[in-house]
Request: fold
Amino acid sequence: MKKEIPTKLRKSEYTFSATWLEGMLQAPSGAPPMKPMYSEITSRDGNKHDVLIRSIKEEEIDPMLNFLKLTLDAEYDYYDIVGARVYAELLAIKRKRMKDEYFFLGLENGHLVGIANGRLMNEDVNISLHTMAFERKVGAGGILFYSKAWYAFEVCNQQEFWATFESYNGWVLAGLRMALPSYPWPDNQHELGGAKIFYLTKKLWEEEIKDNYLGQIAHGSFKEASKELIEKNKKLILSEKLEI
Reply:
């Protein structure tokens, strides 16, 4: 907004490099790394799936963005709105416009079965953003959500993990099955759309969730991945169409 200058100036125009602006606008990215983790999942049909969960690589961002465009026309189970938001959140990593974001891929022999992302709001609170499953038969959605809670408490040593849910499937899989309590609303709102906050504390994680939830939903475990499994999932393989 222009205003009249109340004094004489020797110089009335200034030019400077945009790099100075970038220093003010760029979001810091100090989220600690998580080692690639592994879970053996027994799906509903009785088959076993070895799912690797690891952070997305920089060179995988553009292919993932192209893949996520497929979700924008999926007008069922809220895939369109979740996909649009995840697209923006992943683009924010590329453009460095979201503070301390993490973005995990769920992979089986390189094939993408799902994603999970979030961010560190501060030293104590971890914000769950989204979880998406692309291979329903694998049943990796619960594992991917669990991986974010694991990351919050076991890697970042935080005190609370805050989630909200846009789909009924997400709430049933995580909110209901983890029996997550909620904060009073609208006094307390999740930063994702101002929705209700469902939260998990470190105490509840240690006493109830860490050793019980995973076995109940996947009949599996969550442990550091072997070098062989990491190598099998080194190359990301994306489908040309959405199969959900």
Notes: The chain has a mean pLDDT of 93. The CA atoms of residues 131 and 191 lie 16 Å apart.
